Amino acid sequence: MFSRGPEGDKTEMESFVLPLRRRLPALAALAALLLAALCLLSGCGRRKRAPAPPVAPSPGWTETGIASWYGNPYHGRKTSSGEVFDMNQMTAAHRTLPLGAIVKVTNLENRKTVAVRINDRGPFVEGRIIDLSRAAAREIGLLGPGLARVRIELTGYSNPDLAREPPLFTIQAGAFPDRAAAESYRARLRRKYEPVDVVPSLTPPGSFRIFVGRFGDQREAEAAAEQMRKDGKEVFVVRVR
User: Fold this and answer.
1) What are the extents of the domains in the chain?
2) pLDDT at 54
């Protein structure tokens, strides 16, 4: 085929190679388009969605921290769940567990345990994780010292259907004895944060609490609360439902 000598070879080769070289950029572009199409079909390049947060913790969930207890003057008042607080029943307050959660509380200093039902919100004191009724505190030797390091273990729910509802969290940014003081602080907070709500509180009656933001994910609420703490605010993440 290429038998016409060196000059002829060169001429014949150029007639074959040069058109191919001209086609290479177009071929490369076509290959890139085909690869992109394959990626779209196969799912490569898609962002992986973060797994949805659980609606409520599963049995076996644990937390370790400081427990306190409460009795009078809260005895006979309504709790956050709407129930009347009875300090002689095995109940407790927790900020983020669903109302109706059943937990086993172990006093890590004497290994005594008690089972309680969460029917209230609190404690709103930095460093504490659960507020026990007077009766529950007596069971684990907490009445005298008032505070103890405990481990909480979730064992179930008194109303599983309620625990499966989509969660809603907010940030408690303050509690005030009258609306005027609450509204004044709300106005200051609104210079930087939104939304800010003033809500009447059941404990004690006639008082008002300030809540900032609404979150469907506890992790987002905790991140926002941490930023507010960096701004010098004393805040607590609270589960609304």
Assistant:
1) 1-42, 62-163, 169-239
2) 65
